[in-house]
Amino acid sequence: MKRCNVSGPYRAVMHCMATLLLFAEFLAGAPSALAQVTAIRFGQLIDARGQARHDAVVVVDGERITTVGTGDGAVPANATVVDLRKYTGLPGLIDVHTHMTFYWDHTPGSHPWAQLGTLGDAVTVFLAQENARKTLETGVTTVRDLGSSDYNDIAMRDLINRGAMVGPRMFVAGWGLHVNNSPARPGMPATPDPGTADGIAEVQRVARQQIAAGADWIKVYGSTGSDKDTSGYQTFTTEEMRAAADVAHQAGKRIAIHSYGAAGGRAAMLAGAESVEHAVDLDDSTLAQMARRGTVYVPTIDHNRYYIAHKDEYGYTSGDSAGLEAYMRRNVTTFRRALRTGVKIAMGSDAVFTGFGENTRELDRFVENGMTPAQAIATATTTAAALLGKEKELGAVAPGYYADIIAVEGDPLSDIAALTHRVRWVMKGGRVVVDRR
Questions:
Q1: What is the pLDDT of residues 257-266, one digit of tens each?
Q2: Which of 127, 240, 404, 414 is most solvent-facing, going by the fewest CB within 10 Å?
Q3: Which residues, at least 6 apart from 426, have a Cβ–Cβ distance to it below 8 Å?
Q4: What one-character-per-residue DSSP string does 6-73 give?
Q5: CATH level 3 topology of 93-388
Q6: According to CATH, where is 2.30.40.10 located in the chain?
Q7: Where along the chain do the CATH 3.20.20.140 domains lie?
Q8: In whole angstroms, what is the distance from residue 365 CA to residue 386 CA?
Q9: Each residue of 330-382: pLDDT tens digit?
């Protein structure tokens, strides 16, 4: 580092101070430069690449995995040993649909959707650390966050990346694109906001604005439906969705399209979306094309189970709950058909407000409705990592991958509840962020 001349003029002093602060920030945010080699021992390791090793040893140097072996001989002489042989190890999980900055402070008499957007951006991002912490506690170390206001998601991602906030690795979308006065986004202003786009030219402009602001993904609300509304009317045309997809792909980004209904889901697939969120009643032709194209289906079945279980928090009536139950049944039917057709499926919780901490309950729904536990685990590891374009860094326990590793009590290959309810230890990027042993 260049030596500072503190006796120089004011500008030089300020430059010197900035250099020192940057260096301190580098040290704080990059512990791998000083970290010891760590050997983590598991009774069983599910590496998500087809192997289940007994007496497994995962060696971590800094934020990456260097080797995966078995037995005493796989432990380096200079390593610090973490003995987790009572537990089963797995890769850190990936939740591909969250809204991390949707925070509710439980003020008496308030409801989550009505409070959204009223706390102020800085306060919201600060308080949303609770959502981040609860997400990590479920074993989720990476999220794709699909829609926020005022780029709060970008701020949160950057704070986590700097080491100033503890939370999962975030891939974010900025403002979700929606038509003028769309009811697809409860709690948002009725007047146009920076996500509003009508027509191809506006869709292109707004999508480019999200990328310029630093978004990793483009999110499009292709139909009505959210909160207690399960209507699913298509809002953007196929051509408008394709315009957004083209902008994303030209910039090397990907696109996720929300559709509660069949027409919007088919349009999203035809437009070139990497993933279709929520959709029900997809016909055989659409599912077959999704399977051929590799379009990922993110059904978010458990999201409506969550709303029903928390109906008092939201002020829902018995009629609202009945509507959500009916939609969830259609969601399950579509999931089962997609599974039989060979459509790629990824775990997305659509977590909002008090839903954080329940992120992985979607895996319970998957297993209840036809997946093996191994298939369900893949939806939150290898399939999710490939959707993010990070299949060589995330979603597996293997040399060169990020040291995102979790320990659970029990065997999730025989009982998925070991993963969805009994996470005891979480490492993200070589740092232990949860220890409940």
A1: 999 999 999 9
A2: 414
A3: 92, 136, 137, 139, 141, 405, 406, 407, 432, 433, 434, 435
A4: TTS-HHHHHHHHHHHHHHHHHHHH-GGGTPPEEEEEEEEEE-SSS-EEEEEEEEEETTEEEEEEESGG
A5: TIM Barrel (3.20.20)
A6: 35-92+397-435
A7: 93-388
A8: 22
A9: 999 999 999 999 999 999 999 999 999 999 999 999 999 999 999 999 999 99
Instruction: Pull the structure tokens for residue 137.
Output: 């506690």
Category of 266 on φ-ψ map: left (φ > 0), alpha (ψ -120 to 50) or beta? alpha
**8 A C-beta contact, residue 176 and residue 147:** yes
8 Å CB contact between 296 and 274 = yes
The CATH class given to the 35-92+397-435 domain equals mainly beta
DSSP labels for 216-250? SEEEEE-B--BTTB----B-S-HHHHHHHHHHHHH
Residue entry with tokens 């699913």: 232
Radius of gyration of the chain (CA): 22
